[in-house]
């Protein structure tokens, strides 16, 4: 494949569009629905933040237990004319759309709201892993960072679409209309995906007589021989722990701490996602150029550098915080430009890390088990979404109890701390990758030196002792050895990390060296 297939990658990302579309709306409005219902039931008490966190935890339990199971099941499934991913997608999206609409229907009836949330999340977990497997199934390894970039552009556009559409219908119509409009968009995306994607059976389906069990799928994750995977997954956990707390409590922070209207949080998130969409393609190119693990490390470090002053400002100067989040109240001037650069930088660094961390998982996964590894990825993502909002809610309530002021002011401090812990694990993964890369390069260097010695002993002896015929024969033998050397080098590199080694460049250099060797050999013959 000479050129990156932007059109096909965008089409394959349509299923991910439905996921990002709904989650962006869900994470803005469901905490508000939960807060309003809880206040109506128990009154405005300090425990409200903790209970909101508990409700937001409920939506991830289905994902925690179902996604690794569905991933393994999808890897072992093949239905003629549908494939191994589309059956799960075609069933999951319509059911998720129905339950999502019901959340808007029953936003003011507490027990029906909880039922709708649980049903929605079971359906989302059912098709999330197969949707995310379409890209690595159909895109070559060297293009996966770019593929993840396109995927995140589509996801960012979905976030923008969800936030803008829902905020419009929420403000001018009702929550019921807003949620059902989003559900209708999900169905349109499903139709496009079904009509445009045909899976090919070019990968052998993993076969096993053993029945897949949910708990065993979770256990297998910790018994993988490659311990690098666990470090990557812990890095994913802590990065998402910070992200999900920010996304979950931002609407409450904006309304309670900053004093803006409820839908203002949707607009602010929309501005962030605009920067994210503009950053996704460049972030994909960077990941392809320097490798996904290096790109992830740079992204996490940059995010920490950007979010740390925001965390300090959120504690000491709320008026400045209002200006930053509203780009100086959308007035033109040097302050607005400065705040735009800050938000853009934070958004770019987050996207750089987010795009490439999933590529690291893709590259670690054997081709037969891509969906299984993606299931592991989403287990840790779901754990972060379950544990982190609950812990953050307790911390905020504890701070409120001690200080007598709202603990939501410490929101960005929590986010910064979570990303600092993620940096520790990303750095560990970087060390392991570099160690393995050095071992691979040393092994290849030994092989090249061995081949070089064989050529010297074989070629020069024949050409010196015998005449023109054997010299021609020796030249042919040299070419055969060189072709064999390239093939063996390719096989040795097949086990190395694809994001760290560019075989095309190595092969180009080797062929140049071969030409020089043949020229030198001919000069020796003439001499």
Give the helix/strand layout.
Layout: H1 6-12, H2 14-42, H3 48-75, H4 86-105, H5 110-138, H6 144-172, H7 175-196, H8 214-222, H9 228-257, H10 264-290, H11 292-316, H12 318-325, H13 327-330, H14 334-364, H15 370-403, H16 411-465, H17 468-493, H18 503-526
Helix pairs in contact: 1-6, 2-3, 2-4, 2-5, 2-6, 2-7, 2-9, 3-5, 3-8, 3-15, 4-5, 4-7, 5-15, 6-7, 6-10, 6-14, 9-10, 9-15, 9-16, 10-11, 10-14, 11-14, 11-16, 14-15, 16-17, 17-18
Task: Give a short overview.
83% of the residues lie in helices and 0% in strands. With 527 residues, the protein is an all-alpha fold.
Identify the notable features of this structure and list them briefly:
single chain; Growth Hormone, Chain: A; 0% strand; 2 domains; globular; mainly alpha; 527 residues
